[in-house]
Amino acid sequence: MTLEGSAAPDFSLESTSGGEVSLEETLDSGPTIVLVNRGHWCSFCAEQLATFSRVYEDLRFNEGVNVLPVVTSELPKLVEMRDRFDYDFQLLADPDGEVADQYSGTEQTSHGLTGIAGTYVVDTDGQVRYEQIADSVDDRTYGNWVRYFIRNDFEDPFGE
Length: 160
Known about the structure:
Strand content: 25-35%
Number of strands: 9
Shape: globular
Low-confidence stretches: none
Distance between the termini: 22 Å
Radius of gyration: 14 Å
Largest sheet: 7 strands, mixed
Mean pLDDT: 94
C-alpha cells in the first residue's frame, strides 16, 4: 500500500525537546518531512538523519520545512541519540510502532518491534507528495535530494 498522493495520517508523539508534536501543527508553517526510523541503535538511521540535519536550517529558514523523525524507541534513548549525533531537530518517540504502522509498517527484529525505514514529504495540504520505503536497511533517501525535490515543486529534481 502506498501513501503517495493520499492524505498523510496525522499523529502526535512525544518529542525529545519536551511535549508532544503533531503533524497537523507542523504543516501550518510549511511542508513536513516524516522519516520513519528503526531505532536508536540503527547506524543506517543515524546516517540518514545526519544528512537531514545538515540541510535542516536551510530548509526551515527558506522553505518553512519541518523534519519529523519518528523513531521506534523509548524517549530516553532518543535523547541520548540526539545528543550523541548533535541533530538540529527533535526526534519523536514511537516505541509501540503505532505511527510507523500507519506509514511504512513495522517488523519484528532482534531489537524487538521496529519501524520499516521510510521517507515521506507531506505538502501543506497534508498530501503525501513523495514516499520511499526502504527495500533493505541501508536503502534511504537523503536530505539533500529531498531539499531539491521540495524546491523543484515536488518533482524529481533530476528528471528521473
